[in-house]
Amino acid sequence: MALARRRFDTLIIGAGGAGLNAALQLANSGLSVAVVSKVFPTRSHTVAAQGGVNAALANVLPDNWHWHMFDTVKGSDYLGDQDAIEFMCREAIPTVYELEHAGVPFSRLPDGRIYQRKFGGQSQNFGGEQAARTCAAADRTGHAILHALYQQNLRAKTHFFDEWFAINLLRDDEGVVLGALVIEIATGDPLIIEAKTTLLATGGCGQVFRTNSNAHINTGDGMAMALRVGVPLMDMEFFQFHPTGIVGKGMLISEGVRGEGGYLINKDGERFMERYAPHAKDLASRDVVSRSIMTEIKEGRGCGPRADHVLLKVDHLDESVIAKRLPGIRESSKIFAGVDPVYEPIPVFPTAHYSMGGIPTDRFGRVVVPERHGEEAVPGLYAAGECACASVHGANRLGGNSLLDILVFGRLAGKDIRDYVRENPYHRNLDEAVVEAAIAPLERWEQGGEGPGVAEMRGTLQRLMEDHAGVFRTEAVMQEGVDKLTDLRERLAGARLRDHSKAFNTARIQALELDNLFDVGMAIAVSALHRKESRGAHSRPDYPERDDMQWMKHSLYFKAGDVMDYKPVRTKPLTVETFPPKPRVY
After folding, report:
1. Residue 25 binned pLDDT confidence (cut-offs 50, 70, 90)
2. Is 63 among the domain residues?
3. Residue ranges making up the domain that contains 281
């Protein structure tokens, strides 16, 4: 069928911090920019980021970017690419000041400088005393940043396609990406958006797990679109479980709570993190704290009638501190846990939170794939934010580095796209066969007849991932998970939509999201099964040690045949000496 078409210099899929920061660079350069978002932009998941954004401003305690770099390399369990990490930590400082000038209302110190709080995994002087590096706007930092970026994009006349869903990328026979097929949720009408460059900024995939901290929109759409055009996903086995989600709900209790002086206790009232991380205690890295909580529960020291959680204690803090620094956390705790943290501790349990892996990119946001002589950029395709993997997080992300990642690499991708468009000023011809291939998933869900429903399949997938790819993993558990997931994926072909109407058919969107969740779920499960070591968030009791000789390398998962490949970690920074791997203790 003949589809409507629009043309832009660049197409950005996703309106979170990465997408909006890239769009702002481009719109201010005079390019025509289309931003496609399946929700209104200020409802993108960046809005939920609580604690802050890291930058070595040294406003509260001594700090510099080199210390920040060391903490990030160590936090990554030495799997992060050190050139990209150095670049991010250097760029953090001007990025935060740029946000300040754009109107982000950061919390302030009495002298007017930006307030910075303590966060996990931060140190002074390469592993010394605790640092205070996280620039915060109370506990609603993501909200403040996203609204400021959206307002600046309105001023710059960025073109928004609000509540549109991206289905597939358009990639021609020469491997060039020419835009995407999208659908308007309100009408069900498809549209071809042709673009000289396309940036994937679709966020994470936390909805692949049953209990998670992510918005319902985080279904791995960009990651799955990349897989379907032959791009692998990198390091997908490394999925972070945030240690302090509200038990049974998954809503996040920010690490900023511990940064302000909160601490974890078990049923005996013991501050158990002193045993697992004697120096950093409750501000050890997230993977360490999550495993410690799980161990406490497994060994019978959990809290509550079912001994299935621990407690986060903040009632020793002054109510004025909580009101000023943690107002959103207090509200969330009262609503979702029925607890006012001013008077009693919050029940918490690790919750699926963040994907360290994603679409492989260089530090300029260009999507790169393995070739015979190293790597090659996919012409016209970029990725930034949680859906991407420039590998600044490696095997484990430090709190406060996620907002930094999306802002730094969204900004850099925008600048590189601007140069690419200047060098490639004309649209390429779009073959009709490319369009037909892209629309196939939409037509597949128009089939009638009986079959499993979308909600049923999604629930089964989420339970399977939670049971077989959680905090602790063993060969037998993961192999069983991959086998079950393979069988479930075969059943997916028989799943059917009950509602085939066009107008505002959210069931159709959920069906398309289900396809994406299956692709990403398989990437996580297969990648995890193949990595036979414990590193960062990937914890294997049957291989308890980190193995730098065999496994200091990035994994690459290809959808075709569920094939795995690997590439080396870049250990050489840009201007300083390499941080060699060391035992990772806190």
Report:
1. very high
2. no
3. 240-353
